[in-house]
Amino acid sequence: MRPRRAAPSRATSILGGAAALLATGLGLLVLAALLTARPGDPDLYPARGADGAAVALVSHGWHSGLVLSRADLTGAGSGPALAAIATRFRAYPEIEFGWGEARFYRATPTLAQFDAGLALAALFTPGGRDGVVQVVGLERPARDSFPHSGIVAARVSPAGLARLLARLEASFRLVDGQPVAGGPGLYGPSLFYEGEGRFSYANVCNHWAARLLGAAGLPITPVLDTHPAGLLLDLRWRAGLTPLPPAGANLSKP
Question: 245-252 long-range contacts, Cβ below 8 Å, gap at least 24?
Fold first, then answer.
């Protein structure tokens, strides 16, 4: 007489179902990444010759920012907002820009101050929420200013820089032709400015940074770029960027 096969346990069935759901979710994520990937523009990036401009992307764990030379802010593509910022931050050779939801960004300098209620409201309010731009003056290069952050640097062409600056300029709300400052930023010599654009789960700070780099000709993948870790991976994978090596242990964040 053939022995009866033991029925799978409830726990085994649940684990099998969870694994199938996980595999399906990962497959859909990969498919979405492939379908939304945007190619780079070889006429803009990478820069050829000595005329390129340096742009650094800095990951702060939950948020990312872009660092540009202050001297580059008044070139082609800039406007009254960037001209005013270049003047106001004239004592600093490099400037970091970050965009985010007004309330959550101001209230979350680090993950230790994370507020789930503010985060959910920022992500899922119908129609999105108002954005702000943080501008930070840096006395030292990005790697020295943020020694513990993940950073990649790219050299973009003059035409790519002009397109990046035009998109950055459009991130600021203007009143009477000038950007509107809205109080001190989160660290160092910094200010918040009223921003344009609506923040939501489909348009987070890292998407904003990725779109600026995309305007400069770099390939981007919006699905991956939702989180700074994915954005860094995307830039390493598709744009060929190499992370900057760690700074000396004696350097501190501004």
Answer: 245/143, 246/147, 247/143, 247/144, 247/147, 248/147, 249/147, 251/140, 251/144, 251/147, 252/147
Q: Is residue 118 part of a domain?
A: yes
pLDDT at 102: 84
Distance (Å, whole) CA 213 – CA 192: 21
Residue 205 lies in a domain: yes
pLDDT tens-digit map of 227-244: 999 999 999 999 999 999
For residue 216, give its domain range. Answer: 43-238
Number of domains in the chain: 1
Query: Considering just the CA atoms, what is the radius of gyration of the chain in Å?
Result: 21
**pLDDT tens by residue, 76-123:** 888 999 999 999 999 999 999 999 888 778 777 666 666 677 667 767
Question: Is 196 a member of any domain?
Answer: yes
Task: Report if residue 182 sits inside a domain.
Answer: yes
Distance CA 26, CA 77 (A): 40
The C-alpha angle 217, 208, 63, rounded to 5 degrees, equals 120
